Amino acid sequence: MVFSTPRGPFHALRDINLRIEAGELVALIGHSGCGKSTLLNLMAGLVQPTRGVLIGYGREIARPGPDRAMVFQNHSLLPWLSCFDNVLLAVESVFGRRESRSQLKARAQAALELVGMAPAATKRPGEISGGMKQRVGIARALAMEPKVLLMDEPFGALDALTRAKLQDELLAIQGATGCTVVMVTHDVDEAVLLSDRVVMMTNGPAATIGEVLRVDLPRPRDRVHLATDPTYMAARRAVLDFLYTRHSHPEAA
Ligand SMILES: Nc1ncnc2c1ncn2[C@@H]1O[C@H](COP(=O)(O)OP(=O)(O)OP(=O)(O)O)[C@@H](O)[C@H]1O
């Protein structure tokens, strides 16, 4: 992936070769600026690769589509709409032509219930906390019934306790829906706790995939129990070693 900039071409990513299985939960981790969001945006179809191709379910990814829903760090809800209407808007964009008004509303309601936000359905984003906004953002994405949930640091702006709660909810939702999740994160514990595989990226420019770690921990996963689990600790150590010993951030070196 090469971006044109006023100072000439910028080579952001190179030689990315990654296959993700349906139903997998994959974390993309790497230092700031290595290209995690760029890779996620490529999967979303928001940008096109300079060379190479992305294939989703046998078809080239040429543009955003309802099979791939994005959840951003800053929730990106429309401030003038209620939580319910924010979700309904997404539901309408996918199912609006085929389903009745009451069916669409039922979908929006069910998605809000899934993330525990039904009681705040009539509130606007400005009237609820950061964690609640993020929940509504996830509800909006899930309501589209995507095959793939693309999450760009979805819990990055939250306090540790809210973050832990939403991580547990994501695990439960993914267990229930079986959707594929690709999540960008800076957080080693989050990556190991949630993922089937942790994709570790080297530093840019021309960043690539340095290593892929398989996390062989049974599900459902319990964070308290895992804190002393040898497999968990070894996985965590391997990611820390990659990030801070072998590929420390250039500015920190
Ligand atoms: N549209 C663009 N034009 C030019 N350069 C870009 C563009 N988008 C991203 N880049 C550059 O590509 C590199 C990768 O950016 P990206 O946002 O993907 O990194 P990241 O790993 O997600 O960073 P962070 O963890 O800080 O969010 C950076 O050097 C960034 O400046």
Automatic annotation (TrEMBL):
Protein's UniProt keywords contain Nucleotide-binding: yes
CDD domains from the UniProt entry: ABC_NrtD_SsuB_transporters
PROSITE patterns noted in UniProt: ABC_TRANSPORTER_1, ABC_TRANSPORTER_2
Pfam families listed in its UniProt record: ABC_tran (PF00005)
The keyword NAD belongs to this UniProt entry's keyword annotation: no
InterPro entries given in the database record: AAA+_ATPase, ABC_transporter-like_ATP-bd, ABC_transporter-like_CS, ABC_transporter_ATP-bind, NO3_transporter_ATP-bd-like, P-loop_NTPase
Compartments it resides in: Cell membrane
Gene Ontology molecular-function annotations: ATP binding; ATP hydrolysis activity; nitrate transmembrane transporter activity
Span of domain ABC transporter: 1-228
Keywords linked to the UniProt accession: ATP-binding, Cell membrane, Membrane, Nucleotide-binding, Transport
Membrane topology classification: Peripheral membrane protein
A single cellular component GO annotation: plasma membrane
Stated family: Belongs to the ABC transporter superfamily.
Protein name: ABC transporter ATP-binding protein
Source species of the chain: Inhella gelatinilytica
Taxonomic lineage: Bacteria, Pseudomonadati, Pseudomonadota, Betaproteobacteria, Burkholderiales
